Amino acid sequence: MSAPRSLLLALVLALAGWPRLAAQQRSDGVAASRHSAISIAAARIAPAVVSVNVVRRERALPRTVFDLFFLPPGAEQVVQGLGSGFIVSADGMIITNQHVVTGADSIVVTLRDGRNFPARLLGEDARTDVAVVKINGENFPVARIGRSNDLDIGDWVVAIGNPYGFLLGNSEPSVTAGVVSALRRSVLPSAGQAGLYVDMIQTDAAINPGNSGGPLVNAVGEVVGVNSFILSESGGNVGLGFAIPIERAMKVARDLRRYGRVRRGWTGVLIAEPGTNSDGWRRQSGVAVQYVAPGSPGESAGMAAGDTITRVGDQPVRNYLDWEGAQLDLTVGDTLHLAYRRDGEAHVVAVHAAELPSERAARVSLGDLELITVTPAIQAERRLLTTHGALVVTAGPEAQQTLQLRSGDVIFRINNEDITDADQVQKVIGYFRGRGGVRLWFERNGQQFWEDF
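and the corresponding structure tokens:
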């Protein structure tokens, strides 16, 4: 065969195979384009995402007029709850939200592959809404931890969790994608809210029921936040989701695992909270110091009531949420460089954070009830109205059931006897026992209550 004829034959054969080759190239291109940064990030983190299944007992409340007459006193009902979490150590330590596991009688963690593990609560911190649970085992998949400080507004992020749990038929986590809508976002707390949501990451990635406690992930598959809550009038997602910065969550988790509590720093500087009927606090150019606890780091630094704090380090303090944000992440031994105004003059001081007075105080145990004496420093730390009494540090199931007390309550009177220290509680209850009924007065969330026994 001559050279021209062989070239012609090769050309014909090539043209004959071109449609198949072109189709294959198109197929390969489409397949490659399917794998975006979001899908890769989700694949990296998914094995470490878990479902957190909770069972708790709650007091049964009457729902109909018949319940008022036929519901037995003290009746309880079993309530199931669901949230998400992610594994942060190969031996099974898991971060989730405190509101997911609080009051749990039992906790079961479900891995992506469907395996179930009983879990125990290592610790919880209501102020940051972070909790740590532990499952037994080894070589569990671990989430890669990133830095929320590296985020920019507009960055892609992925929210992963288990919304609605087993209603969806399996334990495979759900993925929603969005962007970082805002950074350092603080939300005004509602009445009775224990958590303090300041310096949060705002995202429009959908966060639905059951997502709480799951990770917020950046485009390279690193956890940058803990999905916590949404703002919505209807209860459904409207694109306003909030996540706890991962640095805060990891610090709290380390403290909870090591100490069983958060070793939070304390300055002793109490600032005035805004009024509920005014939004003027949003336009402040600083926060007014209302009280400085005697013997506190703030007093040692020379601060006094009436000062106006304008800056912490290089961050402006525009309102009380900015100040609470600086306090929330404070560790024992940290130094705050505060700028403030006094009588029109500017000052800068260094305040060295100490351990919380309630953590240093001697504790009195009465069964599963732990009490400490209220001092001026503890009154300032806990924002208590009463100036005396016994603060409930922990209240176990028996104390909650028999005395109706919770952590954070302050016993300030028993019958007509004012309580001035924690030791006095046992003596007074012992005196009145057998001599008639006991009326126990206590403060809770700024209100006074009493119970008869």
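(Above: one complete record from the training split.) The chain has eleven helices and 27 strands.
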